[in-house]
Amino acid sequence: MVWLVSAGARAAGDDRPKAANCSFGFTSYADAVALLETLAAGRPDLARVETLGTTVEGRAIVGLRISDHAGTNEAEPEARIIGAIHGNECMAYEVALGIARTLVEDYGADPTATAVVDELETLVVPMANPDGSVASTRGNARDVDLNRNFPFMWVEGVSSGLPASEPETRALRDDGLRHPYVAGISYHTASNYVNLVWNYTPVAPRHEAELRALFEPYAAGTSYEVVLGWHWYSVYGEYTDHNYGTRGTLDTIIEIQSDYGRTTQLGLHVPRAIAMLAAARQGLEGRVTDAVTGAPLRAVVWVAERLAPVYTEPELGDFHAVLVPGTYAVSVWAPGHRPATRSGVVVPAVGREHLDVALEPGGSDFGFAVTAVRLPREIRDDRYANTSVPTDALGPPDGRAYNLEPGGEISIDLAVEVADHEGAELRVHAGPAGPTDTADVEAATAIDGPWTPLGSLVGTTEIDLGASGTAALRFVRIADTSGGRFGSAGAGYDLDSVEVLPPPAADADADADAGDDDGGGDIEDVGDAEPDAAADADGGEDVPADAPTDESLEDTGGGDGDAVSDAPGEAGEATDGGEVDGGGGGSGCGCNAGGAAPGAWAWPWFPAAAAFAAASFRRRRT
Ligand SMILES: [Zn+2]
Asked: Cys-Cys crosslink for 163: which of 151, 267, 322, 368, Cβ 3.0 to 4.6 Å?
């Protein structure tokens, strides 16, 4: 191949050259839909046809969701495989169709396919761009390149359309918001790469170990080369970057070498894809529930050693994180609830650790998920050293921040509707690197707007909705106005956290009420919040006072016996604030007391964040 993996050759690399015409010898759109319907009709226990959305020309975007007990939502990891987001990459949808067919038809006969069907919920969308496949065009019916139309790291003049402007893009995005996929594949042609994220930046993904564990066997089995995407060529507004960057999905582009030789390509790719799905069972799983009601929660789970979120599936509260074997610290938080952190979580060499979490109501709300990011320009320099990622702006203030770059913009879902009340409703926290950076803030109640201006930020700034006449919001959009040179240290707003502030008077009442509900155990938290904040952060010596929190994080894995040895002071726990912290620091935020340091909340949340924060910008050029 002529594609050279070096910075100098990147611009030449693309999967753009195509000879194939999907009209000749390839499965038609109508036949592809019919095949999925036939598979579902033959095994209704294993497969259901779903329509994700409708294309520009009115065609259904159809997928097959495959799992045992099809149609029943089970607490299983979910995965998604798509083909031909570039419509004329015909072999991409042939392979995806082959995966769907093999999972259903080989169930009970092939042990790997059977395990995948039994233990995962897999959605296969063979034709992600039906209009393009029917017309044998790369783009959709409006000639938009859908693989440059996703709202994550969208760049004006480089990406395609406007962010999420196309119905096909929104269909895939919205399905991903409903289903927290742990892993996925986006099939393209024609080259021979297993192309890992990131595609927008030369910086390595924080889950590189997990991505390699999932996809290096695939590459070895096909004799393909593994690349971190940007180092082949950069893409902005790309599907797999979007899914990893906003949802934590370990999603990967696979470039099938040829649009011809279907039997050969199916034989090469289908078994490797199914083996990858089987490997995605490795890691950590559990359920997040409300400690009072037992209801499943929409929650975010952070592994401190990766510092990228995964999300629960809200209907059952189950979460799944692919992790290589090791020992991790895990923090869990849900809107309206206090976070819980547990260190010493051991992911075994084979299989999963199970960790259930019951969160106490109360605490403060913060940015929950990233929904869109605009980058002001392409990253062309392989020495680019802004190692922050947008999800660094989520959660409580912790000293880690996402640097927007000059003119950059981020949209964040607070996951709760914030209504206007007396005083400020939001506090936007600037990171330590940018105390005087400036930005503009807008609000929306829906993911794609419309957006209403809320005001401007100078460093850490409180925002009063009433000042702009805004009644309510769920999404905030923050755009840098501080200028400076792209990629240079100190330029661009450093966004640490977006915090939701309760009404001034209702704050204390709410916390006290929560304490009453818990039998009074949390009332002390309110009273001693400020003095204890630092102790929680440093040593957690007062953790034993939080008796209810002993129950807030239960290890039901059964393998390691941690659940019965949570006594603070146990060897090895002294440095991280206690193995279990149900978020006593939550009321220790002092966010409305005006005195406590904003960062005090963080350390029970991310026991391992300090070292990471110190390292995150060390490679920045000056
Ligand atoms: Zn392509």
From this structure: 151
The per-residue b/e assignment along 1-40, b for 16 or more CB within 10 angstroms, e otherwise, is: eebeeeeeebeebebeebebebeeebbebeebbebbeebb
For residue 86, report the distance from its CA to the centre of ligand 1, in Å: 5
Query: What is the rounded (10 degree) CA torsion for 274, 278, 281, 287?
Result: 60
Which ranges in the chain are annotated with CATH 2.60.40.1120?
Answer: 283-358+512-613
From ligand 1's centre to the CA of 189, what distance in Å?
6
Query: How far does the centroid of ligand 1 lie from the alpha carbon of residue 515, in Å?
Result: 55
Residue 85's Cα: distance from chain center in Å? Answer: 20
Query: pLDDT digits over 322-381, tens only?
Result: 999 999 999 999 999 999 888 889 999 999 999 999 999 998 899 999 999 999 999 999
Q: How many A from CA of 190 to the centre of ligand 1? A: 7
pLDDT in tens, 287-324: 999 999 999 999 999 998 999 899 999 999 999 999 99
30-279: CATH architecture: 3-Layer(aba) Sandwich (3.40)
Residue 504 CB contacts under 8 Å (≥ 6 apart), including other chains: 422, 423, 592
Calculate the alpha carbon distances from 289 to 335, 359, 389, 566 in Å: 12, 6, 28, 20
366-501 maps to CATH 3.40.50.10470: no
Greater confidence, 154 or 533? 154
Nearest to 234 by CA among 168, 153, 308: 153
What CATH topology corresponds to 283-358+512-613?
Immunoglobulin-like (2.60.40)
Q: Where in the chain is the domain with CATH 2.60.120.260?
A: 366-501
Residues whose CB is less than 8 angstroms from the CB of residue 467 and which lie 6 or more positions away in sequence, other chains included: 454, 455
Q: What is the ipTM of this complex?
A: 0.98
- Cα 24 to chain centroid, rounded: 39
* Nearby residues for ligand 1 (ion, Cβ within 5 Å): 15, 86, 89, 188
pLDDT in tens, 113-160: 999 999 999 999 999 999 999 999 999 999 999 999 999 999 999 999
Contact 325, 345 (CB under 8 A): no
- The confidence score (pLDDT) of residue 15 equals 55
pLDDT in tens, 485-505: 999 877 999 999 999 999 887
Pair 533, 585: CB distance under 8 Å: yes
